[in-house]
Write a structure and sequence with these properties.
81 residues, mainly alpha, 3 helices, 79% helix
């Protein structure tokens, strides 16, 4: 079994996840309210997961739209006289 060197461990420790704590707190409050209303933890957990997945895809869509807009702005910038 290979042993990880010190350099490998440093690379693994550099990986950081950006977590939007305000959004996470909002989703947890919504889930708490759903647990109260539906009396079903699993249904509330499923809705929480759907919220996270929807947020992820909305952020990806927004990033792609911004990159596309920046590319078109950069190509049009050289054409002006």
């Amino acid at each position: 079994m290979p042993v990880a060197s010190g350099n490998d461990i440093n690379i693994l420790m550099r990986v950081k996840t950006k977590i939007n704590w305000k959004l996470t707190l909002l989703f947890l409050v919504v889930t708490g309210g759903l647990i109260f209303l539906t009396h079903s933890f699993l249904m509330s957990l499923g809705i929480l997961l759907l919220l996270f997945v929807g947020d992820h895809f909305a952020q990806e869509f927004d990033e792609r739209r911004k990159r596309k807009s920046e590319r078109t702005d950069n190509t049009e910038g050289g054409k002006h006289i």
